[in-house]
Amino acid sequence: MSRLYHYTSVSGLRGIVDSGNIRATHLGFLNDLSEGGAARKDEAWRAQLEAAEKRAPLFIASFCRHQEPHQLKNGLLSQWRGYAGEGGGYCVVFDEAVLDGLVEAERRISPGLTILKKDVLYAGEGEEEVPGQNMDFLDLAAFVKSEAFREENETRIVLAVPPDDSRAIRFRDASEMLIPYVEVFSGRRLLPITEVIVGPSPLQRRCAAGVVQFLRTHGLNVAVRLSEIPLAR
């Protein structure tokens, strides 16, 4: 079974499970400041990005692929530091094949929506050539990222959301900012969550006990494990 790993805070975990949905963040509010421009930096490219923003802004849901046994068991240290929040955070693990099926179903029931799921390509800083030179605008804007983030081994679900789509643009607060996002699916779904890894924290076991009860109230009897990474909080 191929799995995808999504790191989040306690509020992010609660949002996923309560809504039966996955949040996709606006392209301009992701952690890589070169997002959308990692591929090209000329004025014509910026004009294309601005036009796309008016026509159908891009929203991105991010996942990691893990292959090393230690990462499969405990998660990735940089992700715990970057996304988990002060309380230790959580990694929600998804069955990729089932998630792919949900994306395909969404494509069929939302014909005006562009929705893609692909692996990210990484471009070195200052490179004139980037991977996938024959890629189209959407691929270059949403699936090319700085080489500095290669460790994440990222896969993305990308939505280009036109004004007439039923999805409402919502906002969450983080670091004194309002972050725009949309929900990936047009309604509640039975998400293919296979397990939840509880991030490093002094109250890790208590956090895990709360998550077990929380998941059960939503009919999710999935494994909850503790990351053994010795990260001080």
Number of helices: 7
Number of domains: 1
Q: Biggest sheet: strands side by side, in what order?
A: 5-8-3-2-10-9
Q: How do the helices and strands follow one another from N- to C-terminus? A: EHEHEHHEHEEHEEEEEHE
Mean pLDDT: 87
Q: Can you offer a commentary on this structure?
A:
It is a single chain. This protein is of the alpha+beta class and 233 residues long. The protein has one domain. It has seven helices and twelve strands. A six-stranded antiparallel beta sheet has the order 5-8-3-2-10-9, with helices on one face. Strands 1-4-11-12 form a four-stranded mixed beta sheet. Helix 6 links the parallel strand 6 (121-123) and strand 7. It is globular, with a radius of gyration of 18 Å. It starts with a strand and ends in a 7-residue tail after the last strand.
Write the layout of secondary structure elements.
Blueprint: E1 3-8, H1 10-19, E2 23-26, H2 43-55, E3 58-64, H3 69-74, H4 77-83, E4 90-95, H5 96-109, E5 114-119, E6 121-123, H6 137-142, E7 144-146, E8 154-160, E9 170-174, E10 177-183, E11 193-198, H7 204-217, E12 223-226
Parallel strand pairs: 6-7, 11-12
Antiparallel strand pairs: 1-4, 2-3, 2-10, 3-8, 4-11, 5-8, 9-10
Highlighted features:
single chain, 233 residues, alpha+beta, 6-stranded antiparallel β-sheet, 4-stranded mixed β-sheet, 7 helices, 30% helix, 27% strand, globular
In short:
This protein is α+β, with helices and mostly antiparallel strands.
